[in-house]
Amino acid sequence: MPQKKNFALENFLEETILTCQSITKRFGSIVAVNDLDLELRHHEFLAILGPSGCGKSTALRMIAGFESTDSGRITLQNKQVSGPNCLVPPQQRNLGMVFQDLALFPHLSVAQNIMFGLNGSKETKQKRLKQMLELIGLQDSAAKMPHMISGGEQQRVAIARALAPSPELILLDEPFSSLDYQLRVQLRKDIRNMLRKEQVSAILVTHDQEEAFIFADQMIVIHQGRVMQKGTPSEIYHEPANPWVAAFVGEANFLPYAFGKNFLMPETPLINQVQSVEEATSQLMVRPEDISVERSNSSNADGLIRYIDFSGDQQILKIKLFPDTLIQARVSSRQLWNAEDYIQVRFHHCTLFPMKSEDA
Ligand code: ATP
Question: How many CA atoms lie within 13 A of 199 on its CB side?
Answer without folding.
Answer: 3
